[in-house]
Automatic annotation (TrEMBL):
One of its GO terms (molecular function) is DNA binding. This is Phage recombination protein Bet. InterPro entries: Phage_lambda_Bet, RecT_fam. It comes from Serratia symbiotica. The lineage of its organism: Bacteria, Pseudomonadati, Pseudomonadota, Gammaproteobacteria, Enterobacterales. GO terms for biological process: DNA recombination. It holds the Pfam family RecT.
């Protein structure tokens, strides 16, 4: 066992009130790592676990080996909840959700306004796939899609609110390992229909978030791809600003 691994295991044991030793490392490797792990890979995992105060024994954090002989640190939902609630500046969170999207707002004690992130079902959901035997394999996105989207919104919002970096949820980690992490969808910029679609989206967004959602739901898959993810997010932010402006005008009128 390397010195670095021994030191990291010792720090973890001290934090959890356990005895350090070779047995501890062996149990941890069996518990917190999917597949065979080198000392370097396991040391990397323990560094992240100690940095965020997570417990590998309760699966708050574990890891997959990646294709470059490194690791992908995976933090379960319970682990994310722990580091969010454990942050000194955390002052609560709230959610707004429908079938298309989920918005998470996190409040910090040292800021006047909440950090807000919206995640969209059509961007996040993973489809069921066929096994080699031809059977359809379903996952949590089929059984609990709203819960999965809520987790996505919470995690992305936590990253912006507190600067959490270098850790993934299980869904993200699987996409990284598979090499299927989607590139940012900039839309089909050369498509002649794009300017008109964006113009219609802007008109809808100027009437507020509900108007924009109705516009987006009325589009076909091809039209959504033409607009693209980046432009969609811009239009949605525009719809929120339009609502805020209307509320301000109403308040002033009173």
């Amino acid at each position: 066992m390397s010195t670095a691994l021994s030191n990291m295991a010792g720090k973890l044991a001290e934090r959890l009130g356990m005895d350090a030793g070779d047995d501890l490392v062996g149990v941890l490797k069996a518990t917190a790592f999917s597949g065979e792990a080198t000392d370097a890979q396991f040391t990397a995992l323990l560094i992240v676990a100690n940095q965020y105060g997570l417990n590998p024994f309760t699966k708050e954090i574990y890891a997959f080996p990646d294709k470059q002989n490194g690791i992908v640190p995976v933090v379960g939902v319970d682990g994310w909840a722990r580091i969010i609630n454990g942050h000194d500046q955390f002052d609560g969170m709230e959610f707004e959700q429908d079938i298309e999207s989920c918005t998470c707002k996190i409040y910090r004690k040292d800021r006047n306004h909440p950090i807000s992130v919206t995640e969209w079902m059509d961007e996040c959901k993973r489809e069921a796939f066929k096994s080699k035997s031809g059977y359809e394999v379903k996952g949590p996105w089929q059984s609990h899609p709203k819960r999965m989207l809520r987790h996505k919104a919470m995690i992305q919002c936590a990253r912006l609110a507190f600067g959490f970096a270098g850790i993934y949820d299980k869904d993200e980690a699987e996409r990284v390992i598979e090499g299927t992490t989607a590139e940012v969808n900039v839309g089909r910029e050369s498509d002649s229909r794009r300017p008109e679609l964006i113009s219609k989206g802007e008109d809808a967004a100027k009437s507020g978030a509900e108007s924009f959602k109705a516009f987006w739901l009325g589009l076909g898959n091809e039209e959504r791809q033409i607009i693209g993810v980046i432009e969609k997010k811009r239009l949605y932010e525009l719809s929120l600003k339009s609502e805020s402006a209307e509320e301000a005008e109403f308040t002033e009128a009173e």
